[in-house]
C-alpha cells in the first residue's frame, strides 16, 4: 500500500447507526458532528482509500474508490467511525492483503 498524498479540507462527517465508536462514551465530543479536516489517500492495486480524520485525529472515516473498472466510477463510504487504533489495524490489514498481489522480480 502506498500513501499518495495528504490534503486539508473541511467536509462534514456522515452519521451512521453502525459506527463502532459510541458518542455516549465521551459527552464532550460527538463523532457524528465533527468535520473531517485531514485526509490521506492510499493506493492498492484494486482500490484507493481516502482516510479522513477530525483535526485532533480522534475519529476516522474511510472512502473506498474501486479502480478495477477504468470506465466506471465505483465509490463506497464505509459506515464505520474508526478510532486511531482501529484505523491503524485496518491499514495494516489492507497492506498485508496487498503484499500477496505485489509483482515479484523475475530472476
From TrEMBL:
UniProt superkingdom: Eukaryota
Q: Could you tell me what this protein is called?
A: Uncharacterized protein
Recorded source organism is Pistacia integerrima
Where is the organism placed in the taxonomic lineage, from the top? Answer: Eukaryota, Viridiplantae, Streptophyta, Embryophyta, Tracheophyta
Amino acid at each position: 500500500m502506498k500513501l499518495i498524498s495528504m490534503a486539508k479540507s473541511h467536509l462534514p462527517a456522515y452519521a451512521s447507526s453502525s459506527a463502532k465508536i459510541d458518542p455516549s462514551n465521551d459527552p464532550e465530543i460527538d463523532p457524528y458532528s465533527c468535520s473531517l479536516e485531514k485526509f490521506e489517500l492510499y493506493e492498492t492495486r484494486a482500490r484507493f482509500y481516502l482516510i479522513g480524520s477530525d483535526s485532533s485525529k480522534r475519529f476516522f472515516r474511510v472512502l473506498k474508490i474501486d479502480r478495477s473498472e477504468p470506465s466506471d466510477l465505483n465509490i463506497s463510504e464505509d459506515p464505520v467511525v474508526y478510532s486511531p487504533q482501529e484505523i491503524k489495524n485496518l491499514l495494516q490489514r489492507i497492506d498485508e492483503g496487498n503484499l500477496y498481489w505485489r509483482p515479484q522480480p523475475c530472476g
